[in-house]
């Protein structure tokens, strides 16, 4: 499933888009590059019934590490999100499950692997 596919499924299941989750996470202090994935995963599982793969897509949005061309809102400090300088590298790791990886092609949509 592509990164955008995960975000569409999340919106279908919860009625909330990436910007909504950024706002909700900010209310809980769960935004920015230092946010702990485990904290976000637990929150999203408890409140929205999201699995690890879908939660990791939201973690990537919150950390500003979503693939280039995908929603990457600035963190709470107002610093710009990371750009695509890490093309081809894994941008979020989930112990082999739910890893968010960017496609090798420039402007690639990226893909989220794992269950969720």
Please describe what this structure looks like:
- The chain is mainly alpha-helical and 116 residues long.
- The protein has one domain.
- Helices cover 41% and strands 6% of the residues.
- Strands 1-2-3 form a 3-stranded antiparallel beta sheet.
- A hairpin with a 7-residue loop joins strand 1 (90-92) and strand 2.
- The N and C termini lie close together (11 Å).
Could you outline the blueprint of secondary structure elements for this entry?
Elements: H1 3-14, H2 18-28, H3 37-48, H4 52-63, E1 90-92, E2 100-101, E3 111-112
Antiparallel strand pairs: 1-2, 2-3
Helix pairs in contact: 1-4, 3-4
Biased composition (Gly residues): 105-116
Protein name: DUF4287 domain-containing protein
Pfam family, one: DUF4287
Which spans have pLDDT < 50 for at least 5 consecutive residues? 74-109
Structural class: mainly alpha
Q: The biggest beta sheet, please?
A: 3 strands, antiparallel
Strand content: 5-15%
- State the separation between the terminal residues, measured CA to CA: 11 Å
What is the H/E string?
A: HHHHEEE
Average pLDDT rating: 72
Radius of gyration: 13 Å
Total helix count?
A: 4
What is the count of structural domains? 1
Going across the biggest sheet, name each strand in turn.
1-2-3
Instruction: Tell me roughly what share of residues is in helical segments.
Output: 40-55%
Q: Characterize the overall form.
A: globular
Number of strands: 3
């Amino acid at each position: 499933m592509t990164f955008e596919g995960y975000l569409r499924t999340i919106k279908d299941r919860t009625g909330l888009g990436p910007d909504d989750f950024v706002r909700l996470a900010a209310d809980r202090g769960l935004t920015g590059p230092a946010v702990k994935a485990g904290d976000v995963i637990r929150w999203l599982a408890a409140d929205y019934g999201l699995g690890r793969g879908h939660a990791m897509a939201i973690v990537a949005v919150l950390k500003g590490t979503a693939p280039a061309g995908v929603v990457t809102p600035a963190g709470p400090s107002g610093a710009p999100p990371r750009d695509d300088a890490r093309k081809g590298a894994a941008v979020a790791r989930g112990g082999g499950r739910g890893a968010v990886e960017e496609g090798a092609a420039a402007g690639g949509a990226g893909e989220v692997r794992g269950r969720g």
